[in-house]
Amino acid sequence: MTTSQLVQEIKKKKSFLCIGLDVDLNKIPEHLLKEEDPIFEFNKAIVDATHHLCVAYKPNTAFYEAYGLKGWSALEKTINYINKNYPELFTIADAKRGDIGNTSTMYAKAFFEDLAFDSVTVAPYMGKDSVEPFLTFKDKHTILLALTSNQGAFDFQTKNAEGKELYKQVLETSKTWNNAQNLMYVVGATKAEFLADIRQIIPDSFLLVPGVGAQGGNLQDVCKYGMNDSVGLLINSSRGIIYASKETDFAKAAASKASELQVEMAQILG
Ligand SMILES: O=C(O)c1cc(=O)[nH]c(=O)n1[C@@H]1O[C@H](COP(=O)(O)O)[C@@H](O)[C@H]1O
Known about the structure:
44% helix; alpha/beta; orotidine-5'-phosphate decarboxylase activity; pyrimidine biosynthesis; eight-stranded parallel barrel; binds orotidine-5'-monophosphate; OMPdecase_type-2; 270 residues; RibuloseP-bd_barrel; lyase; TIM Barrel; globular
C-alpha cells in the first residue's frame, strides 16, 4: 500500500487507529478454546467487528511465535484474511527485526512476500546495511524504532553521544539512507513531550505510536505535537481494545472501545 492510499483511508474513516492483535490464549474467551484455531477465530471476530473504525492492524509476532507452528499458521491466516476481505487496511508485522544485510533480506521476504504485510517494525541498532534491504521493496514500509514507549527507552535512546541524543541520530541518519521514503518511525505515546523535537527532524514521516490505553499514553498530547498536514500518525492500542471482554460479546466490546478512540480522533480531525 502507498502512503497516499493510507492517508486517503484515514481521511475517509476519520480514524488513524491501529488495532494491535496481540493474542494471548489466557486472555481470550473460553468458548473459543474449543475451536481448531482459537487465535485465528479470535482475530477474525475482532477484525470483522472493528475494520470500519480503524485503518491498520498490527499483530505482534511474539504472540504467535510463542505458540510454535500453530501460532505462525494463525498469523498467516490472519494476514491473508485481512488482505482478502479488507484490502484497504494497512498491515504491520510487529517483529522488530534487523540483522546483517543478507539476513535482513530474508526477514524482509518473510514479512513482505511470504506473509504479505505492508510494513514491518525494525530495530535500527545494526545500522544502514541492516535496514536498507527492507527499504528496497516497492510500496512496503519499514517502521524504525526511534523512541520507544517503555521505561528502558531512557537507558540508551535519550542518551547523548557526540552532543546529540541517540534517537535523534537514528532519525537524522536514517533519512540519508537509500529509499528512505519507505521509512516510518515508532515513537511511544508515553513520550509525547519529545514529539515537537522529533517533528523538527522528520516533519513528513508517518509515526506509529503505541502506548495509549494499557501503557497510559494520552491521545490528545500525541496529536498536539505529532500530527502533520497528512495526519502522519497511526495510534496503536492492543490490550485496551481486544480484551475489553472475556465473554461471548468480546468482539462487540472491542468495537465499542475502538469506537471511543475513533470518535476522539474524528473530533481532533474536525
Ligand atoms: O513497535 C511497537 O509496536 C511497540 C513499540 C513501543 O515502543 N512500545 C510498544 O508497546 N510497542 C508494541 O505495541 C503494542 C502495545 O500494546 P498495548 O500496550 O497492549 O496497547 C505491543 O505489541 C508492543 O510490543
